[in-house]
Amino acid sequence: MARKLPIIYVRGFGGGQSGIDALVEDPFYGFNVGSTHVRVGAGGDPSFYQFESPLLRLMLDHDYDLKVHGSQLAWLGRQPDGEVPEATIWIHRFYDDAASTWGRTPQEYRLERAAEDLLDLVTLVRAKTGAPRVYLVAHSMGGLVCRSMMQKVIPDRGAHAEQYVDRLFTYATPHGGIDFDIGFGLFEKVRDHFGIQGADIFGPQRMWEYLNPAGVGDLRANWDPRKIPEEAFAPDRVVALIGTNPDDYDVARGLSSAAVGVKSDGLVQIENAYVPDAKFAFVHRSHSGRYGIVNSEEGYQNMRRFLLGDLEVTADLVGLQPPRQQAADRGEIIWQAEVELAVRGLPILMHQQTAAHHCPVILDVPADESDRPQPLVTTFLIADPTLRPEEAEHARYTLHLRLISLRQRDGIFDFRDHVEQTADFDDWLAVDIGATDGGLAAWAAWVSELPVPLRDYVPTGPPLEDEDASPRRWVKRIALPRAARELFGPHVALRLTVRDRDGHAADALTGPPQ
């Protein structure tokens, strides 16, 4: 697996004084919070499932250590340089000085100060562990604290963020701020003008101030706060985990989720949780609470695989052409894709992008014969043989793909010839990733064409031919089943790209676990 660099967790917004005081009482700022609920089990009955928390799971699954000794920061400062293990977890307790529970006057919280203190912590952790860089894991506003450090604080000191940070993973961060579906912009103006409980940090003016280095001037029209400039930090080192469940976010008795709308996690709208050009995943979790995104198996599995996984897998839809019989309707037919990703051995979906959750993939179907790739999903896998069944030599995942067409006239959907929940194409692609002759190899099959249940399927024969001669990279176009090719054109396919991130994945895939 990838090198176990130190992990620093940065939590989200605390709100007013009572909220800050409550979270400061938690020794790990919520990174230790787990959950004990799932909605429905087999047969439709409630089923108990226990998620131990991301903090504990990193310790159990990856042998990370947690150094506290009364105070993490004080203990760390007393250690000799280079003597603390790299595989350690640290909590950025940036709200402590703003609490009223210490018997002194609380300081006013400023996001820029939290970002400066984060750089101090990163610098200290690197010195004491000897690690070249750290991993940052952040929830909600914590992602903005991390970005302020990388995009403003570090450049203002004449350095570059990639000297300090290796990868950034954000849970439900409002990278584009927080907007409301109601009020026609009035609520945002009141929030940003009065700074109620410090919530103006989610408005464009304050975001401009803490996401840009000194000397850039005033807020520019059409500025997109979601974008991380390439010169500040490479977006491909970032994964944004996006929640799609507003119903279980019960803050203010549901008023928050009602205000931001259904296309959200209850607090952050889906389109504001993106980072352009970065990787992302959708999970049906709310912003926080008992079904929250941080205290979820979905969140943890995406986080651990991005930070520590050795395989990056990307799927694109290529060669898609509209059905011939619908050529005259090309201006009226809207195409969407639904994508769900499952990894063998996990009781959850790693990625779930569906119309029911208000986030389908909108396909840009070409009107001519051009081959325009349609990005579907990127995920990360761990090629650890101890995490597979004893008899399995490969890592396996399945990609559920549905292609759906809707007729639209004058901007309004026309449902007269529509049958709800019926797709033009619906199938699962089972992908096995292994190694032959010391290099990556893969086998793939559509589940509809398997002669046995998927659980009994063992790929045989030679692996798929690699179409890319580049080292540490494997590419192959997997043709859709024949019926789909007759409908969408003879060249429609899924293009899979597998990248060995650190050059060692093949070593763990050459045989069964020892």
Q: Report the major sheet.
A: 7 strands, antiparallel
Structural class from helices and strands? alpha/beta
Number of alpha- plus pi-helical segments:
10
Please state the average pLDDT score: 88
Order of helices and strands: EHHHEHEHEHHEHEHEEEEEEEEEEHE
- Which percent band covers the strand fraction? 15-25%
Query: How widely separated are the two ends?
Result: 16 Å
Overall number of strands: 17
Instruction: Return Rg in Å.
Output: 24 Å
Poorly predicted sequence stretches spanning 5 or more consecutive residues: none
3D shape: globular
Helix content, binned percent? 10-25%
Report on the architecture of this protein:
The chain is an alpha/beta fold and 514 residues long. 20% of the residues lie in helices and 23% in strands. The chain has ten helices and 17 strands. It has helices at residues 17-24, 54-62, 72-78, 111-129, 141-156, 186-194, 204-211, 255-260, 297-308, 482-488; strands spanning 7-10, 89-91, 134-139, 165-171, 238-243, 279-283, 311-318, 333-343, 349-353, 361-362, 374-381, 395-409, 412-414, 425-436, 439-446, 473-479, 493-500. Strands 8, 9, 10, 12, 13, 14 and 15 form a seven-stranded antiparallel beta sheet that branches. A six-stranded parallel beta sheet has the order 2-1-3-4-5-6, with helices on both faces. The chain is globular, with a radius of gyration of 24 Å. 41% of the residues are buried. The mean pLDDT is 88.
